[in-house]
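Predict the 3D structure for this chain.
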Amino acid sequence: MVFREWHRHRTQSYNEASARYTPLPDENYVPTIERLLLGGDGKNRQAGTIAATPAVANAVIDGLKHLGVKHIDMPMTPERVWRAMNPS
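Done. Predicted structure below.
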């Protein structure tokens, strides 16, 4: 028996979302910059996620360096990447 089953049957206060009988909402949680920096409880547990956007941007620029691309404005949409690859 896994913990969630034990906890649910012992306390009956743990409600796990299930798609067995009900469709789940199509939602994604994206924290705000204030939530990332301040961390709600003061422990700042999600501060590492701030570096993800520049890391992806640097990876794209490095991948296009051989084409002479040095900069792409954010947000880095597929259209902007395509235009940087094929200037006309």
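The chain has a mean pLDDT of 76.
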